[in-house]
Amino acid sequence: MKLSLFCITTLALIAAYLSCSAEEEPPNSLVNGAFELGLDGWQKRGDVSVVLQPPQSGKPFVRIGPRSGAIRQRAVVGALRIVYFGAELRASTADVTGDICVQCFDSKHRMVMEQRQPINVKEAAGEASKPGTYFKTHGRTSYIEVSVEKREGSSGYFYLNTAQLNVTEEARQSKPLCRLDEYMKPFWTGATVSDETTLMLAEGGKPAAGRLMYKPQQIVSVRSLSPHSVSYVPGKDYTVEGSVITCTPGSRLPIMQSTDFEQGDLKWFNVADKQVLVTYLHDDTWHGPVSAYQGSRLPHIMDKLRKRLPVTIVAMGDSITLGVGTSGFQNRPPYMPTWPELFVRQMRQLYGYHAGNSEIRLYNTALGGTTSDWGRETAASAVASLEPDLVLIAFGMNDFWWMPEDRFRENVSAMMRDVRSRNPSAEFVLIASMRFDPAYALDPQYQTRMRSYTPALNSLTGDGVAMLDMDSISAALAAAKKPKDLISDPLHPNDFLARWYAQSLVALLDNTPARQVNIRPDAHPDP
Question: Would residue 19 be called left, alpha or beta, if left means φ above 0 and alpha means ψ between -120 and 50 degrees?
Answer without folding.
Answer: left
